[in-house]
Amino acid sequence: MSLRSRRNKTQPRVLFRHQIKAMAAAADSPPTRSQALSGMSQVYASEPAIPDLFTSQPLIVDMLETESSQLQQKTIDECLPFLSGEQHAGKCNQHGVPRLDKQRHVKFLHKQLGRLPPQMAAADPSRPWFFYWSLAALTLLGEDVSIYRERLVETVRPIQNVSGGFGGGFGQDSHLATTYATVLALMLVGGEEAYKVVDRRAMWEWLCSLKQADGGFQMVVGGEEDVRGAYCASVIISLLGIPLETSPDSAAYAAGHKDLFSGLGEWVGRCQTYEGGVAAIPGIEAHGAYAFCALGCLSILDAPHRSIPKYMNMPQLIAWLSSRQYAPEGGFSGRTNKLVDGCYSHWVGGCWPLIQAALSGPNSGKARSADQQAADTGSLFSRNGLIRYILCCCQDQTLRGGLRDKPSKYSDAYHTCYVLSGLSSAQHKWTLRAARPTGSAGGADEWEAMPYVEDEQVFNEDDRIGTTHPVYVIPQHKVEAAWEYYASKMGF
Ligand code: FPP
Ligand code: K
């Protein structure tokens, strides 16, 4: 293999305008260029401490140039000025990291919940997604979203079909993705009025018709079956306390699946690829979004330390997930030879707490083995790298606000939600406090979040955002409130 080094170690550090300005402010008169240079030690002292890893070209570059390698180089060049602070006009902390612009992001999100502008009519079938993305992101930023309860309830009631599930809009067929988004949005606003919108019996019948003979779920009756279906169905079933027995007149029942979770873990396991990642369906390319869906689904079927190692090759999965984090960018890519994107802060970043729990098992504070202790304390990815990418590269810097894929892209509700979810999981440590009893599918494990404290914390403490359940991606207390409400329903 021919490799070349791209890094020029003798290259001088660049003085940014804000550093020269800071020096000028310190002195009575603006410094001349020679004064600026003779004051080098002073400048170095005030220069933000950014590890070279995040400010330099990669040390090793493959000589084979392809469209992919050119795009990768373009992305590095696009991110470096943001990672070095150059693009933040002196508004960085001592680590070269800017603040989280909460106010603007909150404003952006409220706007997303308004009426869609006419040019967005094509996005109509994804309206429930906009509700989920915006409400989840607002919640992470500490906003009370119950003010949206009445409007949400009125808006989603007509998109529920009598045959079960929710479409994207009035008169549209029920789809697992829009149903998942609608259910989560309802749980986010919370309250009995929201909980009772869902027709759970019809939902159960519809889910039974989506369940396939091979164990998986179709997204829509007669439509595609993939790992999104496995995750969305398990979330809906377990959050709403849908009875697990399959309907005796369903094809799944005839195929021997007497319950909705039967054969699902095996089906998800078949989606792990030779690379170690997880694909949408068996036999195609691994992608980060599906890795999260797979691990989330498995963590619902049973406690993660039992179900994830049961269906997944852990070393290969961990190797693949680790390869998703890039330097200097610090963010995650979704697949091999592709680019970092802020949304993978969640799809890939959100896999880590589940992997960590799978490795550590429940930690109730009792004596731990050496392996367990190592898994308890270590971090499986560079949290600071991800936090740098998010705060430096993913924030829209105009009045628009919102978070984005990368600096050359516009912010949107999808990225705002998943970038913030990723930020939250990088800032916290989740522990499985107590696992459900063995063999109780859909049962609740006890999770606990603690602020993750690094030796060197690169973000301002004020910018630590809220937490979100590692499996359901809504706050833990909203998950528990839903469980409590539906537990009182018994059957339907
Ligand atoms: C590729 O896009 C993206 C995918 C193949 C996955 C999309 C799926 C999700 C975002 C998640 C679905 C989850 C649920 C719960 C419904 P791309 O080729 O534009 O991006 P890439 O270059 O980063 O792969
Ligand atoms: K992408």
UniProtKB/TrEMBL annotation:
Cofactor note: Binds 1 zinc ion per subunit.
SUPFAM superfamilies the record matches: Terpenoid cyclases/Protein prenyltransferases
InterPro entries the UniProt entry points to: FTB (IPR026872), PGGT1B-like (IPR045089), Prenyltrans (IPR001330), Terpenoid_cyclase/PrenylTrfase (IPR008930)
MF terms (GO), sorted A to Z: protein farnesyltransferase activity; zinc ion binding
Domain of life according to the entry: Eukaryota
GO biological process, one term: prenylation
Domain Prenyltransferase alpha-alpha toroid as annotated: residue spans: 100-473
GO cellular component: protein farnesyltransferase complex
Names of the cofactor(s): Zn(2+)
EC numbers, comma separated: 2.5.1.58
Keyword entries, A-Z: Metal-binding, Prenyltransferase, Repeat, Transferase, Zinc
Catalyzed chemical reaction(s): L-cysteinyl-[protein] + (2E,6E)-farnesyl diphosphate = S-(2E,6E)-farnesyl-L-cysteinyl-[protein] + diphosphate
TM stretches of this protein: none
Function as written in the Swiss-Prot or TrEMBL entry: Catalyzes the transfer of a farnesyl moiety from farnesyl diphosphate to a cysteine at the fourth position from the C-terminus of several proteins. The beta subunit is responsible for peptide-binding.
Protein name in UniProt: Protein farnesyltransferase subunit beta
High-level lineage: Eukaryota, Fungi, Dikarya, Ascomycota, Pezizomycotina
